[in-house]
Specification:
heterodimer, A: 227 residues, alpha/beta, Rossmann fold, 4-stranded antiparallel sheet, 7 helices, 10 strands, B: 400 residues, 6-stranded mixed β-barrel, two-stranded antiparallel ribbon, 20% strand
């Protein structure tokens, strides 16, 4: 068991005496090798749940555990370090740094971890090789297609060898052919390296190919399906 | 080191992600910096040039007198009984200084008798250290070994109706309390460009003045120093009076202009910094999403702020270097092509302390302003970073 959420709620205060639940009494266990999609309409709380797992949001109530350790009350800086050590992120709009090349974008989190120079080079080239972009390493994001940018984003996420990869609508900005290629890549990384993936998505192709689907409604897990 | 190099590379490239905006920001800051440097150089060098030009004509940088020469410190009155002797003055103060007998007298010409200040001086030393002798435009200055020759201000000569070669009667009070009076032959007229000093000054050689006032041959009233770079000494038994004390109204005006210029410069730096701060703020607000993404990937707030500081520091340094170069080049341009002060007076001549001053001012670099401007710019850059840093640091318990 990697991550566990116990009775986690996130409350947003939207005005005097008005509160909205972004997440409500969530109980969730994430195991190594999980390949899971959070599904639901816009505003249902998928992204909030993803952010709570990532430690980007602090729960209003409840606890979050990682490998049995309570990480609920870590400070903002401690949560940032925790994310850097254990998680990778893939964004809908890629969020590559425009001033850095593909190589440097993948290198970025490794530099933050203060890893040895030679090991950085080895890991970056490995990650770019996994996503099939080793020959594009010196290109800047604007010189890459949307699909290629998303691959760089995935390479950046896996380069740190995280326990968990969180992907927020990773195929939303891609055409169907590219989307399938990206999904295939996720599947390959999951099966070859037993990497854990959690997606927030509307993409039926992705929903059909994950192992577990969690249906989110009004900030709660309304249903769960295994494929 | 590798981590810092990466941070540095990231920050440097971020400056140029919007090249036009970066160039506008750098050049606006550079032009402002150059302007400030030039104005400060102009103010300092200009004031110094004008004052040197003025003081070297007659007043000197400072003078050494008997402690009682100016009663109760009033430099408009003279106690002519309070004299000094060469032996009283430290050796190093004798260099670049001129002994003068200075006493109020009446001078009587063909038409009138007027009260003026008679200066007994050493013509060779005036030639060497001051520009006094160059002010004689008609006739000549008194000869070193002459007896009872006198040079009068042009205006004074006209008022008492006297011509070169004619004699004037000089009446004053001698050192022994008797009436000092004698006839002097007029040999030249001083032309200070029509200023007030032409009404009130007259010159003879030192020996003639000492004889008139019954002074010994090493006895006089003032030792006037013309070394403008030399700091006035502190002497236990003698009075040292600087030009600031002798001409307080001019000194105050110069200080006021210098102070005002510095205030204007600080305001200009402040305005530039506000503009810069605004540009930085817009740039940072536009990048809020990017900062969130950086944080999600694993960059902590210190890293993000460090990268912004490096960006601002590099931008500021680049602008500062260009600005100092612009200011320096403009300063040197006005060194080789001095500024005509008549540009500021609608072509009218400028007078200072009753003398016409040289209308062209050479500007030269004043080294202290280079680092002072640099510190000021960096200070304002740091101030302009406070709010963006606060916004990044003060994110509450949620990272996004």
């Amino acid at each position: 068991m990697q991550f566990e959420l116990k009775n986690v709620s996130k409350v947003y205060e939207t005005g005097q005496e008005n509160i909205t639940y972004g997440a409500k009494n969530i109980n969730l266990t994430i195991r190594e090798g999980d390949f899971m999609a959070l599904v639901g309409p816009s505003g249902s709380g998928k992204t909030t749940l993803l952010n709570l797992i990532a430690g980007l949001l602090a729960p209003s109530t409840g606890e979050v555990f990682h490998k049995g350790e309570d990480i609920t009350h870590l400070t903002l800086e401690e949560r940032t370090k925790h994310r850097l050590d254990y998680m990778g992120f893939v964004f809908q709009d890629y969020q590559l740094l425009p001033v850095l090349t593909a190589y440097e974008n993948v290198e970025f989190p490794l530099q933050l971890k203060n890893i040895d120079k030679e090991e950085i080079k080895e890991r970056v080239l490995w990650a770019l090789d996994q996503v099939g972009l080793a020959s594009f390493k010196d290109r800047f994001p604007k010189q890459l297609s949307g699909g290629q940018q998303q691959r760089v984003s995935i390479a950046r996420a896996i380069a740190c060898r995280p326990s968990l990869i969180l992907a927020d609508e990773p195929t939303a900005n891609l055409d169907s052919k590219t989307s399938q290629e990206i999904i295939d890549l996720f599947k390959k990384l999951n099966s070859e390296f037993n990497l854990t993936f959690i997606f927030s998505t509307h993409d039926q192709r992705l929903i059909d190919q994950v192992k577990t689907v969690l249906y989110i409604k009004d900030g709660q897990i309304a249903d769960q399906k295994e494929h | 080191m590798s981590r810092f190099n990466f941070l540095f590379k990231f920050s440097y490239r971020n400056i140029w992600r919007e090249p036009k905006r970066a160039l506008i920001m750098i050049f606006s800051l550079a032009i402002g910096t150059g302007y400030i440097l030039w104005v400060l150089n102009f103010s300092e060098a200009g004031s110094k040039e004008v004052m040197n030009d003025f003081l070297s004509q007659y007043a000197g940088s400072y003078q050494i007198t008997n402690k009682d020469y100016y009663p109760e410190g009033n430099t408009k009155r003279f106690n002519t009984f309070a004299t000094i002797r060469t032996g009283d003055i430290p050796g190093q103060e004798l260099a670049s200084s001129i002994p003068r007998v200075v006493s109020p007298v009446f001078i009587s010409g063909n038409k009138k008798t007027l009260g003026v200040l008679l200066n007994g001086t050493v013509p060779q030393l005036e030639d060497k250290f001051s520009k006094l002798t160059t002010a004689v435009k008609t006739g000549r200055f008194v000869a070193p070994d002459s007896s009872n020759e006198i040079v009068l201000g042009m205006s004074l000569a006209n008022k008492i109706d006297i011509k070169i070669g004619e004699q004037v009667a000089v009446i004053g009070q001698a050192r022994d309390g008797s009436v000092a009076n004698d006839l002097f032959t007029v040999v030249g007229f001083l032309d200070f460009g029509g200023g007030d000093l032409e009404d009130s000054l007259s010159f003879t050689n030192l020996e003639s003045a000492q004889t008139l006032f019954s002074l010994d041959e090493d006895e006089y009233h003032q030792r006037v120093n013309f070394d403008m770079e030399r700091n006035p000494p502190t002497l236990e038994k003698l009075q040292v009076t600087t030009w600031h004390q002798l001409l307080p109204e001019i000194s105050v005006s110069i200080r006021f202009i210098d102070g005002f210029t510095k205030i204007v410069c600080i305001v200009v730096v402040g305005v530039i910094s506000l503009g810069l701060s605004n540009t930085l703020m817009i740039s940072f607000l536009e990048r809020q999403k990017e900062f969130s993404a950086l944080n999600i990937i694993g960059a902590n707030r210190t890293w993000i702020i460090s990268s912004l500081f490096i960006e601002v520091f590099l931008t500021g340094t680049l602008a500062l270097l260009i600005g100092l170069l612009i200011g320096h080049l403009c300063t040197w341009l006005n060194f080789y092509y001095p500024i005509n002060l008549e540009l500021f007076t609608s072509g009218k001549p400028m007078y200072l302390g009753g003398m016409l001053i040289h209308p062209y001012v050479k500007i030269y670099p004043v080294s202290k302003y280079y680092w002072q401007v640099a510190i000021l710019i960096y200070l304002f850059l740091i101030i302009s970073m406070i709010y963006p840093s606060y916004k990044i640091m003060n994110r509450g318990k949620d990272a996004i």
